[in-house]
Amino acid sequence: MTPGSSLLKEAWNYSYNKLYFYSDKQKADDYLVSPAFNLKAGHSYKVKYKINCFRPHKAEVKFGTAATVAGLTETALAEQTFKGKTTLEATLNPAADGVYYVALHCLSEKAGV
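Given the sequence above, the corresponding structure tokens read:
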């Protein structure tokens, strides 16, 4: 797991699945980054995130060749707004063979907005 620019040290917590704690002080900008995957150019890869939230949230799916914010250069799913039980589905189309990381990037507004 890699924290985004919000620097919330415990933005992500583990409880059977991943659990995200939103803030009432600042907008979310946090990443849940996968382990490395070996992907091949010319192939498509689907990823799914099953989400359940009681208030509206925003997220996008990024991927790239490094498990850092700067290394997640490709967008597999543009920003989506959702609430309740939702499945976000994204398709990865790597331009070259290599090791890639996939990330769910939370962009939600601060609580109470």
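The two ends are 26 Å apart (CA to CA). Try to locate this feature in the token string yourself.
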